[in-house]
Amino acid sequence: MNTSISLDEEVRLHSTNAEREKYNNLATLFGIIVALDYLERAYVRDSVTAAECRYSPACTRLLSQYKTMLKLVGDDVPSVEEFMKRYRMDHPAALHRIKVGVPATVEHSSEAGPETGKWIAETTQSFITFMDGLRLRMRAKDQLHPMLQELVTGYARFKGSKDWEGRSKMVSWLITLNGMKASEELTEEQSRQLIFDVEHAYAEFFRSLGGDKTSDVP
């Protein structure tokens, strides 16, 4: 039996509405990763002007869209690395930004200054809230990640914060949490190390604001 294939006939990837929705979601995820990669490269080349006004909101929006789409295609996408490998995507800038989970202006100090009393109060409150959560034995990603993200975002406002040892450790912990599933929890050893690191960062934060590298937190 000869089966002829018409070259003018549209090739369908799906035969049901559910399959069509799945492929549409995968295509959307693909597009978000490509767009994020272009944005990151444009930021590095200074092609995106007024980074705080244009880059940061765009990056935050794309990261939020990525997280939303990942929930919709979770059964078909075990990890972003697997997804990119499956579809032969070479977008290292996007992959790094996804792993970090925050814009580059948050990961690296914007050097914007000046440090206002409001910023100091907000960042101090973020420290206290996060440390209280750890002492109350919060260990799951969905509990800790929002608080730590807010803390790291507050850090980025301060001129010179990129040189603070505690800030780089907080970013590293943010990357660790970002790579976990929402229900996953830190181990007891990890949580103790995190408490130690955040307390060190809190002390360094106050010392740096006062220009004193040796005194303790007031």
TrEMBL record:
It is found in: Late endosome membrane. Keywords: Endosome, Protein transport, Transport. The keyword Transport applies. Residues 115-210 form the VPS28 C-terminal domain. The keyword Protein transport applies. Residues 1-108 form the VPS28 N-terminal domain. GO terms for cellular component: ESCRT I complex; late endosome membrane. Its main location: membrane. PROSITE patterns: VPS28_C, VPS28_N. One of its GO terms (biological process) is protein transport to vacuole involved in ubiquitin-dependent protein catabolic process via the multivesicular body sorting pathway. It is a peripheral membrane protein. GO terms for molecular function: protein-containing complex binding. Component of the ESCRT-I complex (endosomal sorting complex required for transport I), a regulator of vesicular trafficking process. PANTHER family: VACUOLAR PROTEIN SORTING 28, ISOFORM 2 VPS28 (PTHR12937), VACUOLAR PROTEIN SORTING-ASSOCIATED PROTEIN 28 HOMOLOG (PTHR12937:SF0). Belongs to the VPS28 family. This is Vacuolar protein sorting-associated protein 28. It comes from Gymnopilus dilepis.
